Fold:
Amino acid sequence: MAKLLTDSEFQRFSELQQKQASFTITIEEADELRDIVARAQKKRDDRAAAMQAIETYIGQFDISPEELFSAEQIGDAARTFGLIPAAKKERVLPPSLTFNGKPYQWTSRALPDEIRVPLFDAFKAGQSVKDFIATPKDANRNAATIARLERETGAVYADAWLEELSVSRAQVDEATAKLAA
Structure:
């Protein structure tokens, strides 16, 4: 009932219902309560008719769910209504670097100059940056590191050095696309 009435109408409806329950309602107030209920029922009937018309048009013009909603919206609705299990989003860890034995997490903030300068200099010079990478066996984080370096320096990392990190160019391109998003 609440979504069928405006806030003021619903507040008045609640007041009148309380008066009716305690038998202190006047004839005019009872008429007002009936009018409020009648308006709510009319609105409910109008909404039901509109939904029926929409369903008819969807069937008549063979409109698919994909034309009405994005894949994300469909997935969210399916999870909300328990049609598919609510999967946890994959947690993506930021690139992790080391320099002079000190660890650095490369989050959305810029790296401190004490590692940024030597890392960027080596990268721009076409040298391997494997010594800077703290997680050499994590291909996804390595690809994210290279993608960020390429984006921030404008240089392209050599394929030989990608192989050294067990990362493909496709993985770096995918990480670059995620950075852009």
